[in-house]
Amino acid sequence: MTQPFYKICPTCNTQTHPDVMFCTNCGGSLQGSPVHGAQTVAYQQNPTPAQPTYQQYSQPVQPPPMYQANYQQPIAPYQQPNQYQYQVPQGYVAGDKNKVVAALFAFFGGPLGLHGFYLGNHQMGLILLLSNVVFLPLTCIFIGIFGYALVGLVCLAQTVLYLVASDAEFYQKYVIEKRWF
């Protein structure tokens, strides 16, 4: 094999690039090997390359002393709390308040506040009922139509929110906390 410049591995007599620090064939160190010029060198290659030897450790490898002083085993893996995870309360009965019934009340009887009274949120039920009473006479001058449209959008949004919430989330948000949204 002829190369312009090369190193010869002292272990397996393989020619390598002059910038390589370890032999690509056997893994031996080439640090002390001289760089040879553009000449043809005859050599005998080993039929089986030497296998690298591995040191067997009887104990686990310890960190260097400068790192041992501040090294501590982790106490427990960090878990970020899930602020949106809802747990079903102890006294919850599955048939107590149904989210589908509340969604039907919000869709069909929303301006009358039926879903508010069903969920126990009497304040929401009264506000929606009184808005219905106020906007009724104002429909003759077209202001009431916008009021009815606003109440209808609120009730439609509540219908969707009731249906997409899990049972535990529905019970926590709308029955216990009595939220509007």
Automatic annotation (TrEMBL):
Entry keyword set: Membrane, Transmembrane, Transmembrane helix
Keyword Transmembrane helix in annotation: yes
Domain of life assignment: Bacteria
Membrane-crossing segments per the record: 100-119, 134-164
This protein's record includes keyword Lipoprotein: no
Membrane topology summary: Multi-pass membrane protein
Predominant place of localization: membrane
Localisation per UniProt entry: Membrane
Residue span, TM2 domain: 96-146
Protein name per its UniProtKB record: TM2 domain-containing protein
Organism per entry: Herpetosiphon gulosus
